[in-house]
Amino acid sequence: MNNFDFYNPVRVHFGAGQLENIGEIASGLGRRGCVVSYKDLGPLESVCDRLIGLLKQKGITVFTFFNAEPNPDISTIELGAEFCRDNSIDFVIGLGGGSAMDAAKAISAAVYYDGEAWNMVYSRHDEVKAVPPEKALPMIMIPPLPATGSEMNQCSVVSNRALKEKSYIWAECLYPKAAVIDPELTLTLPSYQTACAAADSISHVLEIYINGEEDTPLQHSFQEGIMRTVIDNVHLALAEPGNINARANLQWAATCAINGWASPGDAWTPIHQVAHNLTSLYGIAHGASLSALMPAWMKTFKSRRTSRYFNFAVNVMRVNPEGKEETAVIDEGIKKFEDFLRVIGVPVSLKELGIPARGIPEIISGVRTVSFNGEDVLSCNPPVTAEDLRLMLENADPAGEI
Ligand code: NZQ
Ligand code: ZN
């Protein structure tokens, strides 16, 4: 096992009805709060009205910055920071999925950041590294979508549409002060968003499970538990959208998948690094960009880590290994996983996303620019080269001739 330092200061208020306590939770953070959410609130409008009412009851002056687009752009972050500075905001509340929460986090840091906000973002940029922010406004996160886990981590994923890049800010000051994780807020989530969220949560642990260190049995058990919980409960939530228990289990699994507990010392996310390019080049939703790649990734790299894939088949996909060759068990596990993704309604190929074979070199070049390390490989165990990526993307069944 690798050595690690672990720190996570986020106070979690979990459970149905927790939104009611937001006034109390926020009142320690100041008198002027800014709610950051989507341009089009849709079904979240009534949640937002309740939130604002509860804050006002505690004498808090509420400002709103409803400009977060899916995969928030760095220009939005700069605007939001200016808005907070102009209005002397004391604290920020992110209401929404990863896009709204990450916008809230990046804005909170950009308020104090000296220089261009994009410099906060980690990106190889031909060896130019990020200068992470050191200070941010205090934040509260309220996720009505159980996916990114942003509510309890120190990451904010930001896009730069002008550069066609997507990468992340990683800084201790991005830990929210509190997360209000209320499964009642997820009841309005449409089926497709519910399924994309499940794919994202699974990916956060699956990637480390199949690409990370050996000899970390506790981490692997935790990862397996998260994957099984998501698989079982997404079926329930899709069949009965009002099933609050299933929604609660999906939310807690999503938070635990990426708050550091499941994978300390082992943080490989190579599939995310490729998926981010599908978003920046083709505007694909985050969860769908991952589901389209996961089966191909597993088929391409299964022979490099047979024990990991065998355990995945048996412990996560519940394949009965009795009397079967190891390779047959592995293949059955991957097939069951691909079928699961299909059944919940997310794409399992590039073709379904309209991504053509001729787009593969540009995707690889994007991954290289942002995510390859100094040795020109994608960090994971074992590392992945540009040629490996080409094979994997071809296995992901793009549209048109390869
Ligand atoms: O605009 P509408 O149609 O209303 O749809 C919203 C939103 O646009 C809808 N939605 C959210 N909550 C809802 C709801 N609809 C009905 N009821 C509700 N309760 O969902 C749409 C998608 O939201 P978005 O915030 O974009 O989704 P997600 O949570 O998947 O976030 C994706 C972003 O998070 C980043 C991704 O890269 C992407 O930018 N990530 C952040 C991470 C982090 N900070 O640690 C890690 C992740 O791996 C991820 O990279
Ligand atoms: Zn993700």
Q: Would you tell me the structural class of the helices and strands?
A: alpha/beta
Beta-strand share of residues: 5-15%
In what order do the strands lie side by side in the largest sheet? Answer: 1-8-5-4-2-3
Low-confidence stretches: none
**CATH topology assignment of the largest domain:** Dehydroquinate synthase-like, alpha domain
Named CATH architecture of the largest domain: Up-down Bundle
Number of helices: 14
Distance between the termini: 40 Å
Helix content: 40-55%
Q: What sort of overall outline do the alpha carbons produce when their principal axes are compared?
A: globular
Largest sheet: 6 strands, parallel
Cα radius of gyration in angstroms: 21 Å
Domain count: the total is 2
> Which CATH first-tier class of the largest domain would you pick?
Mainly Alpha
Strand elements, count: 8
Q: Give the bound compounds.
A: 5,6-dihydroxy-NADP, zinc ion
SSE order in H/E notation? EHEHEHEHEEEEHHHHHHHHHH
The CATH superfamily of the largest domain bears the name Dehydroquinate synthase-like - alpha domain
Q: Give the integer mean of the pLDDT values.
A: 95
Describe the structure.
The chain has 402 residues and is α/β, with parallel strands linked by helices. The chain has two domains: 11-186, Rossmann fold; 191-395, Dehydroquinate synthase-like, alpha domain, CATH 1.20.1090.10. The protein is 45% helix and 11% strand. The protein is built from 14 helices and eight strands. It has helices at residues 22-27, 45-57, 74-86, 98-110, 191-211, 217-239, 244-257, 270-282, 286-291, 294-301, 306-316, 326-344, 360-371, 386-395, and strands at 11-14, 32-38, 61-68, 91-95, 139-142, 155-160, 165-170, 178-181. The chain has a six-stranded parallel β-sheet, sandwiched between helices. It has a two-stranded antiparallel ribbon with strand order 6-7. It binds 5,6-dihydroxy-NADP and zinc ion (ZN). 5,6-dihydroxy-NADP is lined by residues 38, 40, 42-44, 70-71, 96-100, 102, 144-145, 147-150, 153, 155-157, 185-186, 188-189, 193, 200, 258, 272, 286-287.
